Structure prediction request, 274 residues.
Amino acid sequence: MKISTKTKYGLRAAIYLAEKGKEQGFHSIKQIAKSENISPDYLEKIISKMEKAGMLKSQKGAKGGYSLARPAKRIKLGEVVNALEGDNYFVQCLSGKGKVCAQCKKCAAQNFWQKFQEKLDSFLDSVSLEDIIKNKF
Amino acid sequence: MKISTKTKYGLRAAIYLAEKGKEQGFHSIKQIAKSENISPDYLEKIISKMEKAGMLKSQKGAKGGYSLARPAKRIKLGEVVNALEGDNYFVQCLSGKGKVCAQCKKCAAQNFWQKFQEKLDSFLDSVSLEDIIKNKF
DNA sequence: ATAAATCCGACAATAATTGTCGGTTTTATT
DNA sequence: AATAAAACCGACAATTATTGTCGGATTTAT
Prediction:
């Protein structure tokens, strides 16, 4: 139960883009990776996921790169985490994809983990990228 | 960022013991493992951790086993999770043991992850084993 | 004495994460 | 038109963490 480095990297990249926000234009993987001291090849995969999830937009070719798809205020942390950790990232037993635990019916724990997940989600959805770069949340 | 099966197993074992609470006496790994359909050898390691953390007590020898060290009402979920996932399980960058990220000083994300951790902790500490078996929390 | 249990550490198997690489496509610039 | 810089993509390798197994030592009720 840890924050994966993937998610940490992803958030740092998003913060980078949010901070550069005013300077219109795109920022390349290379730039971000250098600034954040992350392997460019790995970062590319991470950023690609975020782009597919719709929170970043990209520009191919020379002078291309990435930028936020929306103002930082309208990108919630929940979106970042969901994009990188996957939906229902926490309570696997509930996700349709995984195997449902054989004990599920009589599992008193299940209800609890679900509530736990809801708490997390509601917190993550209450914080925006803007909140983070302005350090108020 | 998942609940490890270790923690799930640990919670289920704790719930088992909480439910058996009235029937005084000790419950063996074998019993718990069979009831919860967990490998006894693995469960032993998990339960041993919880015992060392002080939430379970043990009785060696024949007719021995484990029981809650306190009434279920006074065992909070935070205790279970901390015992099994380790302190500061979530925000690694803060734990003294791990390597501190080279970017830590200028890392706007850090403050956020810390707040996140605090949210989790306060929720986990607000729920007791009793709440869980009575399904009210 | 015996059997049932905790206790303990080493190790093996598996799975997940993290990271690398080579190539393809797109596009601004020269 | 050529070039260089960048996103895009999938396969794979390396590393780490989790999960699970085992054999023995110790304790204790019967």
Q: What stands out?
A: Residues 26, 28-30, 44-45, 47-48, 51, 58-66 of chain B lie near DNA strand C (CB under 10 Å from a C1'). The radius of gyration of chain B is 17 Å. The interface with chain A takes residues 1-4, 7-8, 11-12, 15, 36-37, 77, 81, 85, 89-93, 101-103, 107-109, 111-113, 115-116, 119-120, 123-124, 127, 132-133, 135, 137 of chain B (CB under 8 Å).
